[in-house]
Amino acid sequence: MSSAPLYAAAGVALFLIGLHALVWQRHLVRKIIAVNVMGSGASLLLVALGHAGPGATDPVPQAMVITGIVVAVSATGLALSLTLRLARASGQVELPRPRDDDR
Fold this sequence. Notes:
With 103 residues, this protein is mainly alpha-helical.
């Protein structure tokens, strides 16, 4: 039996957990972590879908995942530096709560 369906299910679960945290968390650092969790889930799903059979894997999804890891590290560094600038400028790192007038 192949372990690809297990990896695919774990990738979907990680993506959904990250999506839930991205929607419901107000703290910006937690949102950045949620985006990273979502990216990890997408990478795991892509590797699972690249499994071609017993003993055979497609190298293209693996190369895409490696490229995605490099992009994710760069985007995380940029997001954290912007969050740090926002914290220095405004003194807070959370998004404001929506008012009743905005709904």
